[in-house]
Structure formats: structure tokens, C-alpha cells
Request: fold
Amino acid sequence: MILGVIIKLLFIVLVVAGLFLPLITWVERKQSAVMQDRIGANRADVFGLRLIGLLHPAADVLKLLSKEDVVPAGANRVLHQLAPAMALVPAIVTLAVIPFGGTYTLGDTTFSLVVADIDWGMLFVLAVGSLATYGAVMAGWSSNSNWGLLGSMRASAQMISYEVTMGLSLVGLFMCFGTLKLTEMAALQDQTFRLFGFLQHVFGIVVPGFLDWVRLPMWGLFLQPLGFILFLTCIMAENKRPPFDAPEGESEIIAGYHMEYSGMRFGLFYTAEFLEVPVIGAIVASLFLGGWTIPWLSTGDIVGGVGSVFGHGFATGVAIVLHVTSFLLKVVIMIWFQMALRWTLPRFRYDQVMDLCWKMILPISIANVFVTGALILFLEREA
Amino acid sequence: MLVEKAVALSAILFVLGTLGALTRRNLIVILMSIELMLNAVNLALVAFSRQWGDLAGHVFVLMVIVVAAAEVAVGLGIVIALFRNRESVNVEDSSLLKW
Amino acid sequence: MVDAQTFALLRWIVLLPLLAAAVHGISLAWLRRPLSRWATIILSCGAPILSFVLAFAALLKLATLPADHRYLTDTLFTWMGAGSFSADAAFLFDPLSAVMTLVVTGVGSLIHVYSVGYMDDDHREDRGFQRFFCFLNLFLFSMLALVLADNLVLMFLGWEGVGLCSYLLIGFWYADRWNAYCGSKAFIVNRIGDFGFLIGIFLLFWALAEVDAATVSFRELAAALPKIAEQTVTLPGWLGWLPGAPTWKLTTLIGLCFFLGAAGKSAQIPLYVWLPDAMAGPTPVSALIHAATMVTAGVYMVCRMSFLYAEAPGASAVIAWTGVLTAVLAAVIAIAQTDIKKVLAYSTVSQLGYMFLAAGCGAYSAAIFHVVTHAFFKALLFLGSGAVILAMHHEQDTDKMGGLRAQIPWTHRWFGIGVLAIAGIPPFSGFFSKDEILLSAHLAHGVPGYEALYALALATAGLTAFYMFRLHYRTFAGEFRGTSEQRAHVHEPVQWILTPLALLGALSFLGGWLGPSAAFTSWLGVDPAQSNSFANFLAPALHGIHHEVSHATEWALAALALAVSGAGILLATWLYVWRPELPARIRAAIGGLHRLVANKFYVDELYDALFVRPLVAVSEGLLYRTIDAGLIDGVAVNGSARLVRGFATGVLRQLQSGYAQAYLVVMLIGTILVAVMVMR
Amino acid sequence: MIDFLFYVFAALAVAGALGMLLNTRNAVAGALSLVGTMVALGAIYVLLEAYLVGVLQILVYAGAIVVLFLFVVMLLNLRQDEFSPERLRITKIVSVVIGALVGIELLVLLPAALGPAAVLPEGFGGYRMVGAALFTDWVLAFEVTSLLLLAAMVGAVILAKRRID
Reply:
């Protein structure tokens, strides 16, 4: 039991913190370079081999660690030093409830590849995400600087606002799945549904039989396309990365809430932001992209198919590997997507950010809730 | 027993909130103290509903939370308006009905 | 009312004028966009004419029914209900209301048409034209509601409605303070009567409720009345001087209350004073409201309640005497008037007295008959006078007229017919109705001193003939006494005016043949069973007293009446045609008496001194200054406010330091105390 | 185990409350220590098997309300002198007395009212059951609360927006 938990934690820490984090910084640089028709970072070398700049993350870390940790005069020491941790913790904690694999039985032990399989997982994610605000707020205020203050004000306002809409944009999905438990959600997305079924249900058109073979995986993406877009926008705004980086907009308030930071504390803010990129990817993947599931290939198929030949244990192993892989694949896709976005769109003005939240996303997501509810009622009556 | 402890804790928190509301002069801090009192009440409610196996307590807590949110929104709005007119958030500077 | 014949068109007789009035009102008051002249004319004249047609249709349907079931009803909805009391918005169309409806709608329609011509030249204020017709239609609605009402409450609605409209129309040219004053005078005097009417209704309802027969519907009342016929009331001691005191029949008391209302509406002593002043309104109004229809509402009401008066001989006697006295008084006053409309007004009062005389003598059919004929010829006379007034450019004083026969021959002719009719010259309509009234007076043995009644009525006939011919001569004969430029502008009125005159003239001429008394019919060789057709038609609706009388007496009475009228005419001719200088000399000879009469026996001044001034003084000094301003405003309102303020400033203010935390402390102390109580 | 957790969180909560109460120097620190209380309380709710309430506690209180406080403090940009230690007053003593009284009463009254513990049904305090209760037995209260929120929203906007003269 404890062992299982430790294994899972290790996986999380190693994969996410150890593998993704450095890679992401590198990807960021390379991708921006590609998109801007540059070569990108490739100078760092060890004994002449550069590994297409793969060494740069390490170099960065070394540099940051070796820098002096400045605490500005008149700053509130405690808070100033506490802030970066506050910013980083929520991102990591969130991962605890995200299933990176399904539920399997080996012998007589049943285990599911998630650290904490709590009943109200999605609420947990939201709650913890809401705590992420404090990092920025504390940082900006404690460093006793007007820029910082402005930055943290922007950050707090922006993040509170987008929490609201984030929650709302998910309600539709919750209604579809009827649960807040992330593992259950992922398991549900393991099924598929008839693409043209709605024709029959909604319009009463009898579709020819062969069309029944045209099936889609029951992903949130397909159940709630609108919700997907809204949620993605909100959660990226939560992350304060471009194009939503008004709180740190260099051109206006130098670096916003973390402008007074240096060395590894600044690095921690940076890490937090970068870490949230795969976290976001994981959340979106397990909510909308079927989590660890593989389209058109349910767990039963794998275990049954492979197991009939190589035995159940091996089949389960295969299933685990495939599932984790597909999960990571989806996360990677999402990371790439965010990067692309980050280097495509210019920064919104602050008022634009707020307007987008309150005047666009909020009404649309409310409408989405109502429409979804109506449809669910209708289909249930049909069924 | 867990519940008794929770109730005791809620009593303590309530007293602390009361003291804050009574002694502090900073309007914002007073509001915070009131929030603290509300939380103490919530804790008591939850404890009781745990004891009696009655969900009404939880529902009440939700209501209280909503009310608290509304109260904070309005209260802070008032504070801002006060500060604009008074250049101060000291509760004793705002002892008139109008000015 | 199980065998009630419902006739759904009745409601439209009443509602059409209301619709017209509503359209006018909306276009005037809300949209502020007056209708065009022609739209107004079509709307306002179309409504009464349609109502007339409907009424005629109803009459035809009525004629098909057997005599004892001869009535139609139409119930819209239950208007109000409380316990045993319930009043429907229902209409009753029996012979009585049939006659009244036809008169109201028929004469009303003619006068509407006439008004088009009369009001056309009225540019005193904008939108006057449409406003006038709005009121006129509203009046018609109220009058029809009054006449067709199935119960006392609805009747009272119409009763008040006509009062309101007469007020509005008398003060139609409100820019002139005098007109406004006359309007309010009419309204207030009417209110006194209405007060009596209401008391009557309450008494009746209360008395019936005592015997579990509570109702306000006429037919049920008629059925239920015997139950209270024998009840008596004991008068208070200070009324001991009244005849029959201290115990009266309840019906007598109720009847007197109703008659007070009737006297107010129909301008009888002591409440006749408003009618002459009501002439301040436009002449068509005087014709329609203050001659033909509204003022006869009192008579109609008495006849409608005939079942009650049949049980109340005392009340009937009072009515008869009041009627005849009013007739004489008004006739005498009329002699000395010079204003053409004033003369007609007093003659109206006098004729109304006639009607009440008949009603008091139990000859209700005669009263209604006179109502009809009077409606014809008095409307004719008023419209004729209106034509004269138009011709003289709103000059009403006959001293400034004379010799108009030459300029306006047609007006003169129609007016003459009216004069002959009212003077009671056969075969004009007035003769027959007056004849029947005299007959009824002669036969009214139930009324104390009926010989005197007859004598006075007869004398009034002579007086009537005299002052009417005086008026006619002073207007049309002799020399023109006005200014020369007035003379230059005298002109015959337009067709809008002449046509109604012609029709009314015809009616005044022939109307009498509706119901000639048995003597004439038999003389004309009509089967006696068919004689008195009018009375027979009305009989089922009325509880009149029927006398068998020999034709000889009828002939004798008719001859006597004719002789008296002839004498009056001769005197008038002698004084104003053959010896025009005489009247002045006579006037000089009996100056005091003449002044007394010319000033209407100073009744107005008397009332003013007796009632108006004291009332005003009391209201001003006591009610307004002392009670309202002093007690209510001063003590009750401001005093309580001052009290509260004192308490607040004295005590509460100290508590309100304005420090939120002080409040919180108090609040918590309270909480603690409550909790302590809980703990105990 | 649970008791131990409870003690930890209770200590955290009380510490946070004291921090807010006694920190007369700056409001932001006070607010942040209040956050500690909120989070601790959320955890205690979870220990009391009020999962939904616990999460909402963190979401709303820690996540929104206190942030709002911070936001306002920063917006008004109160300098240190705004929070200079206040003069001791008679009201302070009175307050302490009253507070003590209230505390005693609560400590006497509340446990007395507890009564025997009931057996909790399956899923007690989960979002399903609470939601069911909220939308069946308490739906009216729920709607009324929504009205209250609307009113508060409008009021706040009106209050906080600058007069444009």
C-alpha cells in the first residue's frame, strides 16, 4: 500500500519534475526558435558535444543556483522568501489526483495508477488551483515595490476571475459524466459512442446500420467541445503565461510580481510556470482527451486480447505501459499546443483579459451549462 | 471525541473573532474578524451535523459561505468608498451617518 | 323572475352611447388628438339613433308578449354581492321603461342632430365641439341606465351619472365663472335629493331584510312589498306636529325619502331653485337634460316605485300637493320673466309639477303620458328658443327681441306649434295629457283637499297659456326692440337645426293621439276596448288607481280646461298685441308685487341666507380652521411627529454614538443575556 | 491518527486566528495568517466528513474571499502607519470581558447540546448527498441566496465605481 503510493510519487516527481521540466525549457526555446526561424540555444557544450542544446537547462539551473539571493530593503522577509514555494506547491499537489493510468488487478490486488483517488478530485484540483494566487500576491506585496504591487494586484484579480469561469466551464462536463472523480471520468472516456446516434435521438432520423460503425471515443472533447475551448482558455489564463501574462508584462511593469526576485527564488517562479504547463496538459488530457485511455481500444480489449495469448499478468503489464504512454503522449501534445499558442499570440491588454473573462467566457459557459442540461434531459427522456 | 473538540475549537475561534471585531480599529481587519466568527459558526454547524447525521448543517454552511462572500463584496466596496472620502480606514473616523 | 324573457340587445341600447363617449374621452384625454368634425358627428349621432332602433326592436318584441308577462330582461353580471345583498348589472324593459327609453333615445337623437348645428358656431374654446358630444353621449348612457335599470342600485348609478353630466354641461363654458357656479349649484342641490333617495333605498332594504325578503330588484320588490305594507315607525317627539304623528306607515316614510330624491332631480319645491340657473348651459343641453329627459327622471322614479306609493297614501298626498304648488308658483314666476330661456325653465318646473300632481293622485299613466308629450313640445320650444338665440347671436332677453316672425318664419312656426301644445289647445299633444292630469286631480278623492288641487291645477293651465303666449308675442310679434346691427344679422338657422324642429313639431302636434282618453276615442268611434291605449299599455307596469268616469264629466272638464286656457291666451293677446302699452303701466301700478315676482320671491336669497352662508361659515371656521388645521394637522400629525423627535433627540441620540464597535458590544451583551436565559 | 491531524490543524487554525488578531503592524500579514486558518478549517471539515464543505471552504474562503481582502489592501495601498498600534481603551477591557463571557457560554452550551452520535449514511457529506439536500429540501433557500448574491453584486459595483461628475 504505502509502497504503491511511494512508487506513484516517484513516478510523478521523476517524470514531471525530472523529465518534463528541463525538457520544457528546452522545448520552449527550440520551438520559439523554429517558429521565429532561428536556430535557438545550442551553445552550451560538454567536451564539445552540444546535443542540440539539450544541456542548456542544466546550465540554467547552475547559473540560477550560483546567483545571489537579493531581498530588497523594506521588504517583508518572511513572506518574501515564502512566496516562491507558495507559487510552486499547488502545481505539484494538483498532480496527486490525476490518474496517469487505469485501474488494474494483478493477482488479488487491485490498484489504480493515481496517487490520491479521492471522490471529489476535480474539486480538489480547483481548490488547490485557487491557492496558487497567494504566491503571486505575497511575492508582489512583500517585495515592497510598486511594480511588484501592481503585478500582484493584476495577478490576484485575474486569477480570481478566471477561477470562477473555469469552474463554470466545467459544469457541463460534470453533468455529462455525472461524477467529479477523475479516475471515473477517465474510465468513462474509455467507451465510444455512435457518431450519428444524436440524429436518431434528437431529430428522430433513422440512420442506416453501417453508420453505426462510425463511432467516436466518448471524450470530453467530443461531448463538450465548447467547454473544452473555454476551460483551456481559463486554465491557461490561470497560469499567467503569454498571452495572459499581464501580471508580469515586461513592457509595462518590468516583471510584475517577481521583479524583485533573483537567483533560485526567481527560478522557482519560473519553474512553477513551466511546471504548470504539463500539469495543465495532464488535467486537460484526463478531462477532455480521455486521460490514459486509447481511442477505439478499451482496457477490456487489450487485457482480453493479449491475455488470451500471453496470460493475464503480461497483458496487464502491456495495458499499463500502453495507457501510461498514451497519457504522456496526450500531455506532450497539450504542451506543444500551449507552446505554439504562447509564441503565436501577442499579450492581451489587462482590460482585455478581464473583459474576455467576464464578458465573453462567463456568459458563454453559463449558456453552455443550460444547453447541456436541456440536451441531457431530452436524451434521457428519449432513452 | 472529535466532535467535542471541534465544537470547543469553534468556540475559541469565535471568541478570537469577537475580540478582533471589538478591539481592532482597522475596518478591513474588523471585516476579517467577522469572517473568522462566521467560520467558527460554520465549524460548529458541521460538527453538529456530523453528530446528528443531519445534512441541514452542511446546507447551512453553504448558505453562510455565500452570505459571507456577499458581505465581503459589499463591505469591501464600502471600505473603498470610505477610503476615497476619508483617506482612512479607521472605524472611528467614520462615525457619522453622512457627511 | 323565472318567466323572464331575456333579450340580449338591451345592453347595447345602454352601452352604445357609452362606447361613443369612451372613444371621445380617449381621443381627447389620452391621445390628445381630437377626431375630425364628421367623425365626431357620425359617432355621436349614430350611437343614439342606433339605440333608438334597438329600443324600437325591443318594443316590437315586447308587444308580442301577453300583457301580464310583458317585460324583457338582460343580465350582464353580478355587480356586487354581500351576504343577502346582491345587485346585478341587469336591465329591465317593461312598458314603463319602454316608453321612457323611446322618448330618451328618440328626442335625444333629434337633439344630438340639432346640437351639430348649434355648437358649430361655438369657437369659445378649442375641442369644445367634441367635448360637448362626449358629455352628451355620456349623459345618454347614464339616462338609459337609469331608465332601464333592473334594480335600485343600478338606477342610482344612472341617477348620479345624469347629475354629473348635467353639472358638466351646465358649466360647459366654464371660462365664465357664473356658468361654473350654476353647475355646482345644480349638483349640490341634486345631492340633497340624492341623500333622501339613498336613505330611502337603505330604509327599504333594511325593512325587507327584517322579513328576509332583502332585494333591490324592482319586480322582486313589488312582489315583496306587501310583507312590509303594515309596518309602522314611531316618529321622535319633536316631530309630533306632523299629521299622523307619532306613528307613520313605514312605506310613507320611505316614500317621502324617495320623493325627496325625486324633488331634487325634478326641481320641485323646495329644491327647484337649480333648474332656472341650469339654463346657463348650451340650449341643446337645456332642451335634452333640463326639459325633456333628466328632469323627468324623478317622475319616472315615482312611477317605477308606484307599488310603494300605492301603499303610502300619505306620501302620495304630499307629492300631489307639492306638485300642484310647484306648478302654480313656477307659473306665476314665469309670468314676470323676460329671459326667453328662464321662462321656458319655469314652465318646465311648472309642467313637472303637473306630472307629480298626476303621480300623487295615482294616475301614473297620466304622469308618464305628460312626460312624453312634454318631452316633445318642451324640447321643441327649447330648440326653437335656441334657434332664436342663435339668430340673435346669443341674445336671450326678450326685451331686445320682437317682430322676428318676418326674419325667421320657420322657427316662428315650429315655436308656435310648441306654444299651442303646451297651452293645451286641441288637438295638440299637450291638451290630451293635461286633460288627463286634471281629470285625475278631479277624481283624487284619496287626497285631502282634492277640490283645491283641481282648482289650482286649472288655474295653472290658464297661467301657462298666458305666459307662453306672452313669450311668443314678445319674441315674434310687434316691433324689433334690439339694436339695428343685431337686426341686420338675424338669420334663419341651418338645416341641422330646422330638421329636428320639424320632426319635433310633428310629434308635438300628433303625440297626443298616443293615448286620448276614452271620451275622445269613443267620440271618434273607436272601440272602447281600444281606448286609453297608452294607459292600457302601461297598466301592467304600474300600480295606479283606476276610476270609472262618465264621458260627460270628461267632456265637461275638457271644456273647462280649454276655456281657462283660452282666457289666458286672450289676456296675453290683449296685453301684448292689441294694447302693447298696457303691461308697462300695470307693472308700474303694482311695482312691489312685480319686483317680488320678477325676483322669484327672493327664494334664492332666502336659501342663501338660511343654508349656504351658515354652512360655509361652519365649514370654514369650525371644520377647517379648528378641527382640520388645528386638531388633525396640528395635534395629531405634527404633535406626534414632535413627540417622536423629542424622544429621539432626548434619549435615542445618546445611544447612537456612531461607533460600530459600541453597537457590537451592546449586541453581544444582549446575546449573552439571552443565552443566560436559555441556560437557566 | 485522525485526532493527531485534528490537533495539528486546530493548532494551525488558532495560530492563524491569533496572527490575524495580534498582528497590528500590517493587514496583509494578518490576511495571510487568516488564510492559514481557512485552510486548516477546510482540513478539519474533511476530518469531520464534510468533504464538499471542506473543499468549498478552501475554494471560496481561502481562494476568493481572503484574496479579495488582500486585493483591497493593496488597492488602497495602506502604508504601515495606517496600522500603528492602537491606544488601549476602556472598550478594550470591556471587549475582553465580553469575549471571555461569550467563550465560556459557548463552551458550556454547545457540548451540552451535542447529544448522542448518529450513524452516518454512506456518502454523507459528499457532493451527491449535499447537492441532493440542497436542491430538494432547501431549494427555496438556495434560490433566495442567489437573489442575495445578485443584490450584493450590484451593490458592490455601485459602491466601488468612481463617481463620474
User: Anything to note?
Assistant: Confidence is low (pLDDT under 50) at residues 81-85 of chain D.
